[in-house]
Amino acid sequence: MEFQLDHATEILRRTPATLNSLLRQLPEEWIVSNEGRDTWSPFDVLGHLIHGEETDWIPRARLILEYGESRPFAAFDRYAMFEKSRGKSLGDLLDRFEQLRVESLQALEEMNLRPEMLAKRGLHPELGVVTLSQLLSTWVVHDLSHTGQITRVMAKQYREAVGVWQAYLPVLEK
Amino acid sequence: MEFQLDHATEILRRTPATLNSLLRQLPEEWIVSNEGRDTWSPFDVLGHLIHGEETDWIPRARLILEYGESRPFAAFDRYAMFEKSRGKSLGDLLDRFEQLRVESLQALEEMNLRPEMLAKRGLHPELGVVTLSQLLSTWVVHDLSHTGQITRVMAKQYREAVGVWQAYLPVLEK
User: Fold this and answer.
1) What pLDDT shows up at residue A81?
2) Are A164 and B130 an interchain contact pair (Cβ–Cβ within 8 Å)?
3) Cα B141 from chain centroid?
4) Which residue of B has its CA nearest to A150?
5) Which residue ranges of chain A lie beneath pLDDT 70?
6) Which of A57, B46, B134, B171 is least surrounded, with the fewest CB atoms within 10 Å of its CB?
7) pLDDT band at residue B82 using 50, 70 and 90 as cut-offs
8) Taking CB atoms and an 8 Å cutoff, what residues of chain A touch B140?
9) pLDDT of residue B120
10) Any residues with CB less than 8 A from the CB of A143 and at least 6 apart, and which?
11) How does pLDDT run across B9-55, given as a tens digit for each residue?
């Protein structure tokens, strides 16, 4: 599928509601359990998504539009949420993510991106030259991927509970 | 995590709303695209979940409670939805799934399952002896797994669009 701005924003605007339906007011055990040492719980993933809104997607899009390849993106801290989410509730994080996403999509709309602007180039500190449409596509895939991660982490909590059905549930082996 | 009936139903009752947030009124392309030959689109997955409500979870739970191991479950047709969903819209399927899930959870409540009943045994046509709590755990994992599948299938539509970011997005290789 080719990147289309309106198709992409249709996904991006849905993610807070999806995560809200999936997680809000779930018993704590579903929220804080992970896949083992050095893996993320649904709570951790939500903090990571928040950090992305604050420091990654829109800031990088602005950098592309304003500076092109002349100024590389700041590196993204993939572990910042362990500190930043401390002491917060899942409800706090869901609220915060929803608010930030509304602001991000508003900022995106205000960029008033015409098709030719989507080909503008920026500089990723590790990957090299990237385009604005690649950045926005990655934002969409990142949302979907982490939503999927949350469902996988939760599913695995019942790895033993399903008994012999384990054989039919490849998600438990991932 | 040990199976707990109230923890399990917390997940089961959320799935229709989660899929609704994720999918309703999305552009058709997101809904009908799959991962290639002999794979399922989000539309197909939803039909599969509907078929599960109609023929799998509650009917099997009833069989366990009424007949124990003396009558094996009917085999579950994993491809029935290709015929049954024909001509329906995604909105139709979301509505139908939501309604069926409400009915399933009501039926589950009416079973008034006491803890000792969860150990009751039934006979799976291929896997052999299973317990009621394993069946209900599998229902939960099945929901989460197919929700994750939908996000993965959608993510993959942007496999090319993300450009060099592919290297950071393992979901695209799954």
Assistant:
1) 86
2) yes
3) 8
4) B148
5) none
6) B171
7) confident
8) 155, 158
9) 98
10) A11, A12, A15, A49
11) 999 999 999 999 999 999 999 999 999 999 999 999 999 999 999 99
- The one-letter code for the residue type at A44 is D
Residues pairing with A123 in the sheet? A129
Contact between chains at B158 and A3 (C-beta distance less than 8 A): yes
Task: Give the three-class secondary structure for A40.
Answer: coil
- Nearest Cα residue to B19 out of A94, A21, A93: A21
- Cβ contacts of A138 on chain B, cutoff 8 Å: 158, 162, 165, 168-169
Tell me if B148 and A145 make a contact (CB, 8 A cut-off): no
What are the C-alpha distances in Å from A103 to residues A4, A120, A159, B32?
Answer: 20, 23, 38, 30
Calculate mean pLDDT across residues B98-117: 97
Beta strands of chain A (E only): which ranges?
121-124, 128-131
**Closest B-chain CA to A26:** B10
- Measured in degrees and rounded to the nearest 5, phi and psi for residue B130 equal -135, 165
CA distance to partner chain A, nearest, from residue B52 (Å): 15
Looking up tokens 């990571």 gives A48
At residue B8, does pLDDT exceed 90? Answer: yes
Cβ neighbours of B3 in A, within 8 Å: 158, 161
